[in-house]
Amino acid sequence: xxxxxxxxxxxxxxxxxxxxxxxAGPLVLLLHxxxxxxxxxxxxxxxxxxxxxxxxxxxxRGFGGSNCPYAVHAYALDELAADAAAIIDSFGEQxxxxxxxxxxxxxxxxxxxxxxxxxxxxxxxSVPHARRATAPPLESMRAAxxxxxxxxxxxxxxxxxxxxxxxxxxxxxxLGFMWSISGDAPREERFQPIxxxxxxxxxxxxPGKLPAWLSEADLQVYVDAFTQSGFRGGLNWYxxxxxxxxxxxxxxxxxxxxxxxxxxxxxDPARGPAAMERLRDVVPDLxxxxxxxxxxxxxxxxxxxxxxRLMLEFLHSVHSDSRTM
Length: 325
Prior knowledge:
By secondary structure, this protein is an alpha/beta fold. The protein has helices spanning 42-50, 77-91, 104-114, 137-144, 152-155, 161-168, 170-180, 216-229, 232-238, 241-247, 273-277, 279-282, 299-302, 304-324; strands at residues 6-12, 15-22, 27-31, 54-58, 96-101, 119-125, 149-150, 194-195, 260-265, 286-292.
């Protein structure tokens, strides 16, 4: 599915993860978000491998060719970080550099905190690291919502609701979701707040033609994968936000000590401006910090060359350090 990549399977506690990989050298583990696949990193594989790295990207649990356990708690952040650690172990290249996008970002940060001996450097696209909140996330979202609207994470809590909307027309749902939070969507076609009593799917717009960064063949890869897996697994990640908070009490006040990078788009609704301002407080060795003008949420797909350049800049910095130690 990813040109030039091989595939292997990593098993942990009965969960089988499909991992795409290419190259030889220090390991770079790339973690995708929702609703994506390892395929979202397709543009980074060849140049990272050519630069002397082993690049690996799994379909994370609940997605694509990996197992999709039914239970909500199977998608807690501790489980997802343990998956990443198991993949690192399977390649035998430690410590690894772990970089995530969207939901893959908190998995990357959490892996760095939970398994510091396995993660030599860490980065994220779209979602910055932040200190543990002082209150459960869902309660904070609900308190901040206005009476007429519901936050999308809260909307996703009802099992089966968003699944039925996405799965009624998978191609239209995926394309609309990708388009509405991309950098290309005009203001009137961007994601709209969800009105109470309305459907999530009514808050996105399906464009008449594909954006330049997404071909029909690319879109079909996603359609085929979600036709097979459905959306429950991916949506279950959102259903653990309070559980993740409860289980991370020991990380309150923790900082990420590893070298780090952060890249986002100026039109990315997930970028978290407040968290960006305080990022250096929780990630003191932040070596790359970049806002790509005009880019939306799908960073490594919308701006593949810029993202690859920044990743290589970061990787060379990290491994130059290791060579001089």
